[in-house]
Protein 1
Amino acid sequence: MKALFLLLTGMVLSLTGIAQVIKVRPPEPITDSIIYQTDNVTLIFDRKHLTEYMATMDSTLRNSKYSNKVFNSVQFAHLNAIDMGNHFRKAYCYLEDTANKDFSYSTGKMNMLWAEDGGIMLPYVEEIMPDLLAAGEVRVIDRSTKAIQPVYKMIAEPVDGTNYRVFRLNSGREIFRESTFRVEQLTRR
């Protein structure tokens, strides 16, 4: 029993030892924000990040003949090339229309893949969120204290031989788990 306790303690310490501390960049004025709310935090980032990503993906998708394999999102796994192209164009047009201001998402609210509102953008937001968090481009607000978090941790989560990123507050509460939104999760069910 003592050996098992020591083994578990060693594993916990090794996991915390490989955590990377992410420092949030100094806040720049956000003119047009996107808000993503989880149980523990509210994440805020500039719409320009999503606009830049979508512009890059426009040419990437065309070059790949609108293959859904370009994205890692579970939501796109069942789409054929025609549906993927239609969805991307519809989402891109929604994003480019400056009159659209509905960019607030919550993990507690269901969004339809083919929504006529800002919900159509959710898979793309979840696609870029890990990279933005890793770069410190997201304002992280702890929902329990309402305080902006200047630093947080990123750890690796091995799933079926692939490492995914998990972002946590210093208190240990989860910010965002990359593996939740990746295609590889379909094979585990």
Note: Residues 4-10, 12-17, 185-189 have pLDDT under 50 and may be disordered.
Protein 2
Amino acid sequence: MMSAQLKGRESLMRRLNQLAPNVEKYTAEAKLKAADMLADEIRTRAPTGATLEYMESLDGDLLTSRPAQERVNIAATKDPQATGIFARFIWRFLEFGTAPHSTAKGGGTVLGKKQAQANKTGMHPGSVAQPHIFPTYRAMKPKIRRMILAAVNKAVREARRG
């Protein structure tokens, strides 16, 4: 029986690489496959409009492949094989919805807001939230985790064989 005390991602990966040198290779493949699978599932649940541009823009890829793409979180990942789901910028508006707001020129100023309220022109009614990314991710998270753990186990079994 093996027991270990882990103190972060770096020490875990260092220990796993000592036990099984191919662990990075197998987990990278599993992560990319999981990202593609998640993107496909989100695509099936994505809202469609007059065109399918947004739905077709959903893609799973390595974060290192898209350095110019905007990240959702602020902190950078330490995982060189980290994957993510990429989509057009409107995903936030679709996922969370929007509040009614003025689209008239100068509508963001105090005077513009007063004028928009008075004559009701140039007002966007807002949009209802259409959650499709995060509910899908939460539902698929256990399956994704099992895929990555299976890849780690495969690398460990291969290393033990010799």
Note: The longest helix spans residues 134-161.
Protein 3
Amino acid sequence: MAQINPSILSADFARLADEARAVEGADWLHVDVMDNHFVPNLTLGVPIVESLARATDTPLDCHLMIEDPDRWAPQYVEAGAGSVTFHAEAAAAPVRLAREIRAKGARASMALKPATPIEPYEDLLPELDMLLIMTVEPGFGGQAFLDIMLPKIRRTRELIAKHGLELWLQVDGGVSASTIERCAEAGADVFVAGSAVYGADDPAEAVRSLRSMAERTTADAPWACAH
């Protein structure tokens, strides 16, 4: 089943609790944590995640675009995140970190920037609950979708099938009504959408519409039929 995770990076930060409630039909709420070191932007941290976790019943999907996630990621589980994503490019010991996140009770996820290939991480996939393929350069919302990531999504889906894994494949960056079907056809099943949701007149309806588009495409996708 396709999952839609609205990104609060595109929400009104002065009204985060209200913005979370506006998309309560979403599968997860995507929280972008940026430290102004790993990426050139600064957003929010553990206290905001703690507050959001109290303000919404929608589980939190925290994407850590930060240096030294080995040190900081476990704190986001303790703050209430149901899924924590660290970047392969930033983690010193990704297997150990994934196991620690899982041991604390959250789903462990790893993200790859556009220029980072999936193949070197094939043997690590069984340690993860989700893999995130960035379809823009991380750091800012509202960027245009990078079509050149579609083959990487397909290769990742093939590796998941090769190893018989129940691994979610998430895409983040430029996901909208005009791109979500291409992502779903290539093999993605979890979709982060920021502007496409919070820029809509009715964010909840935007979530339902995007999910419907992804599910229709997935039903006919070769990778899903073979699953």
Note: The longest helix spans residues 203-220.
Protein 4
Amino acid sequence: MSGSPKYSTVTVAPAYARLEAERRRAREAARRRQEAQRARERAERAALRAREAAARRERARAEAERREAELAARRAARQEAHAARSREEQSGADVRRLAEVGELLGRIGAQDSEVRDLREQLGLLRARVGRAEDLGAAIEELRGRVVLLGREGGAPDRGAGHGSVLAGLEERLARIGPEAREHDRQGYQYCVGLLGELRAAAGPGGETRFRALLGTVEHALARHAATAGERAAEELRRADRAREAARQAEESAAAREADRRAAEEAERERLAAVLAEAADRLGVVRQSVQDAAAEAVELADPELAERIEAALASVTGALAAGAAAEALTAVAALEELLVGAEARLDELQLAYTRRMDLAQALQDAMLGEGFAFTGGAEQDGRLLMSFERPSGATYRTTIGTDGEDAVLLYQVDGEPDVLLRPDPDGAVCDRTEDLLERVHEAIVDRNDFVPGELGWQGKRSGGQPPKPPAAAKDWTWTR
């Protein structure tokens, strides 16, 4: 015959409680050591990343300095070339102006001390050409002295006719060239006007006027040539400055583009560094995470296993997508979850050990009462055990937990004192109850566990029978 299941809540004896407390402390210490090891590994990996980042920054700094040095060298070379061109242009202008002064001086026939002094001054100025000195004022002063002396000494080549002198001056104006006309229109027109006046004075009775105008014309021609040369040189300098400004603008644009690229590269490096940190931190805990998920399955906590696997997938997904901030946030959450999960798994392992110890105590006690052990299995966090008496009666036993306590649940089949249905006046299972009580006393004698009062549905008792454990309603055996 078989009846309703019989149950008993089991508490741990003080000695076993002390043993379990020692086991818990040992596991806590092991967790702390493991977390300290992970912290050291994270620190080592962070230090390695920092060294690699410093090496990259140093290489980038050296490369930037090399490029800046090359740019500065090119800039200095351009500036030197520009200065050399400017000096060359200035020297050319000074040479032309001194040549004009020398030509004016050559037209003076006198060879007195003042002329010799002017020639000496001219030689000194020619020697100073090319020394990057501003000779403009000194040349103009010398020119003025030469022109003044020419006026006082009369026209050069006095034996020559007015026509030949006029033709020579017109030829000098033509030799100055059309470019000079473009650069000094006012000076050209002034020279043309003076030549017209000189031509009018070349007639009869104009000797005095002709000689008076001659020095002015020569001075105007020399001045026109010098002004045109200066303006042509200034135009070249302006063009050179424009080219230099264009080059500087191009360099500025290139520098801005380089800064933009550098900023983009810095941002890429920052994101790469964050991804590398997340990957390193995942590498530190990944094996532990996988072990924890597997252990959660083994210890019948599939919800915890799913949470761990989902957290791991969040990290790997973010890393695969290159989402740096999300990866770092996810790996921090995974690290935090792992700490709590390992503490939870330690408690589950302690509970599993407690069930196994209780199962061993129960098996020893049942064998002591003549039972034969016919099999056992782990199912959803419970231990299922089967025993058989020589009479053929079977005792299928479930060891589970109800809160903090362990629970023994017996399903008995084949005992004559066990009714199929509870008696309205109270079911009597005297011989079965006595047998299980002896089993429980044998368990107590091991000094590990203390089974409580045995109860079942419909039990007659002088007091209030123990209530069945809430979780026991779902504990069913399947053959």
Note: The mean pLDDT is 84.
